[in-house]
Amino acid sequence: MSSSEKYTVPMRLMHWVASLMILALIGVGWYMTGLDRSVSYKFDLYHWHKSFGVLVLFLFVARLVMRHLSKVPELPATMPSHEKKLGSLIHVLLYLLMLAVPLSGYLMSSAGGRDVPLFNLVMPSLMEKNEELAGVFHEIHVLIPYIMLGIIALHILGALKHRFFDKPEHDVLKRMM
């Protein structure tokens, strides 16, 4: 495969839609948890946050299937092997976090005995009510978006480095545009 090949259009759309949704969910999550209980729309935000979080889980599964069924452009042969390995590690971490963040929220709600909506539907509970586990999943759900943002920053910085500071054939960003 040529290093100038692009990801398929569906894969590129999935990448950008999921990226925007994930960043928006992190921002809304921070915002809504900082609101006072008296704010009239606070719990509406929770409903939408959970609904889009479940949607991100479904998109994650679709993304895995799509990636398995699609040709993934190879990295340029001239790219240093340590950069290829680091890029692969970053991608694996992003995939793990794309699963872990919404799944921990789903598990937190299930263990807390709270519904997990998908817009006008209610998703099945994944476990019996257990406040102790709900607290553990809450801590995970609060912590890992920070880790995810750090990994996203490395991902973006790596793409920009390849675009603006490396050989033109190392510009991996154009494969996703």
> What is the tally of beta strands?
2
Quick one: biggest sheet? 2 strands, antiparallel
Average pLDDT: 95
Strands of the widest sheet, in order across it, are 1-2
Report how far apart the termini are. Answer: 18 Å
Discrete helix count = 4
Envelope shape: elongated
**From the helix content, strand content and strand pairing, which structural class follows?**
mainly alpha
Low-confidence stretches: none
Computed Rg: 19 Å
Oligomeric form = single chain
Strand content: under 5%
Note the run of SSEs as H and E: HHHEEH
**What share of residues is helical?**
55-70%
What's this model, at a glance?
The protein has 4 helices and 2 strands; from the N terminus they run H-H-H-E-E-H.
Describe it for me?
The mean pLDDT is 95. 67% of the residues lie in helices and 3% in strands. The chain has helices spanning 9-34, 42-69, 81-111, 131-164, and strands spanning 116-118, 121-123. It is mainly alpha-helical. A two-stranded antiparallel sheet has the order 1-2.
Pick out its properties.
mainly alpha, 2 strands, 3% strand, two-stranded antiparallel ribbon, 177 residues
Topology of this protein?
Blueprint: H1 9-34, H2 42-69, H3 81-111, E1 116-118, E2 121-123, H4 131-164
Antiparallel strand pairs: 1-2
Helix pairs in contact: 1-2, 2-3, 3-4
